[in-house]
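hey can u run this one w/ cytidine-5'-triphosphate bound, need the structure tokens asap thx
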Amino acid sequence: MEIIVTHVNADFDSLASLVAARFLYPQAGLVFPGSCEKNVREYLETINHGLSLYSIRQIDLNGIKRVIIVDTNSSDRIEGFDSIFKSQPVIHIYDHHPGQDPKISPEVSVIKDRGATITILLDLIREKGISITPALATLFLLGIYEETGSFTFPTTTEFDLSAAAYLFSQQADLKTVNRFLAQTLSAIQLEVMADLIKSRRIHFLAHGGNVMLLKSFKDEYVSDLAVVIHKIMDMAGPQAVLAMVRMKDRTCVVGRSRVPEIDVGRILLPLGGGGHSSAAAATIKNINLKEVENKIIDSLDNRTEQSYANIKDLMEERLPYAIQELIKKTAETADQASYPCFVVGGLVRDILLGKTSFDLDIVVEGEGIDFARLLAEKVGGEVKKFAKFKTAVVTFPNGFNLDVATARTEHYPHPGALPEVKASSIREDLFRRDFTINALAIQINAAHYGDLIDFFGGREDLAKGLIRALHPDSFRDDPTRIFRVIRFKKRFGFEIEDGTESLMGKALADGMLDRITNQRIREELIQILSEGQPYLALEALQNRGILVRLHPELALSDNFGFLFHQIHDLLFHFRLIIGEEEIEPWLIYFLAMTEDMDFIHTEKFVSDLKFTRRQKNKILTARKRSRQIVELLTTSPEDLTPASIYRELQLVSTEALILVLARISLLPDKNLSEEAKKRVATYLVHLNRMKVMISGEDLKQMGLPPGPDYTQIMEAIFFARLDGKVLTKADELDYVKTYFR
Ligand code: CTP
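ok here u go:
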């Protein structure tokens, strides 16, 4: 025997699904739970439905071979679950709620993203070519209406609308639906609604925000279009909607906006329409739907007609003077060549965040390489061209580099590959970028100086502290963005928007990391390790299982947080005393990060990542020598001469020394670490900078025959100097006379 069951407190969707499932399982008995919604009870009591519904008590529960569960997949919601499932029947599930109850292991599970379960079952019935009576069509329609809140709930899909339209064609009785529910749409309105939703696309506006564009084509007149548009607005939640419906010889356009920045009245003005900024309409004759759409897009894109942010003052306030000058020169060149020209990327983001930024990226709508040549002529700089990418770097006489790109779209031949580039507009150029906060631009041509170009809501996301991918393929196009999202999150203390989080999760699950070349992984790692507080991002990489994917032995040690803090403090100290340029901070953090890996693995990891020979040398030497250096720096002063310190320390890089000091500072004896720090400082500031004053010429004049001995003599003088035995040039000459003649 087999039965069909549904959840307790049955509603119209569960009742409709129960009845519909019977068409797929004609032998099954319908088990209706004791409890149901009030309107469902009224329906069952007042309508002559002719359904045979059983309660669980009326069923012989022994020997149930198969149970079909509809409109739920949770065992907790099924009345008498334990007794029904005692005989371990085969289970089939039909539902629109996501998730999976671990207590149930169904043989068939049809769970789809639909507003109502009946939509799923109706599709299956229709596939079988089964027709339904008007009474059943009415019940099914009740299910859809109720479960989608008359198509206003965000869960509503175009499939629910199509299903409802079909039910109308099967003579579903709207009066009955109305009797049990309020607020219904007519069949033609539903059809239009389904078409409109299917056609939807989002149009991004230059000054921020977006408009949903919808269209439909009908042979007959559709009344009360506005009601349909309202429902779509409630359901989809866009900032504004412009819907175009072609009816016979005319196109009706209805506009609705929730935000003052998008003035639909003004947008429809060029189409002969009118209304308020939040609600407007137009009727257009004699041109086809496509032409109407083009006119609307023209009107939306007409930047001069709209108000948008200008951030000229912020630029003056927040950009270093040298960058402002550079921008002015660039803008002059652009104006002379009549190229629209924009500052893009991180600098725009940082201006809005109130941070100083020195990375100037320029995009021109035109030939970037030609533009770079003109600019270089103007400022007397040099151009390096990358024809394949249509980009160029202009090096200014003061050594400053400016990246110039052609506004471009990129096509990625396969995930992780370098893009193929073709010229396009600034909007497309921005759209290919990673996150909304990085897809902002500022126009710099004199007539538009300071205009913020924000097609994708980047400014709003900056204000909300959200990192949001621009489009669903972002991580597939460029999986290095997985590293970037984590880097920016930690740098700015932002959150990753939910959709972006799941796109990233999917990219990781799909093995996108494996598509990134080792060189690009190295560059991303270096960037992360160059952040102010890299341990936050590293920890996030570890927690997401990314570090171990880079190398199976790569794991942060337990106290790496302390270690990284120590490095951070020491870096501050040593940069003050020896200067910025001499230290590469990322290298210290790299050494710290790989501390727990054995030498062989480190060597392989470093080779795989294709570090330069110099970097590789620094890393591996540090690994080989750090233990001896810790010992040396922590031995008592009597045993150490400056020369003996020098001999050992000069074998490793400054970065390695800072790591060693960080390690020592984690030891309980604070005096020890202070002493070690002094020794390293003395080495870096004095010993390492000492030079012998006499030259080979002096030795020759003293009558010493030139040859390999000279090196030995010079070395001996140098060590004597380190130990303070010689101070002047005369001392050095005496030293040679005493020991080498
Ligand atoms: N970009 C991207 N995808 C990448 C790398 C870069 O879309 N994988 C785009 C972003 O628009 C970014 C710009 O190129 O803003 C410049 O990249 P980059 O200089 O690497 O980053 P910034 O955003 O400037 O960040 P940072 O402050 O770390 O330099």
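Residues 613-633 form the longest helix (21 residues). anyway lmk if its weird
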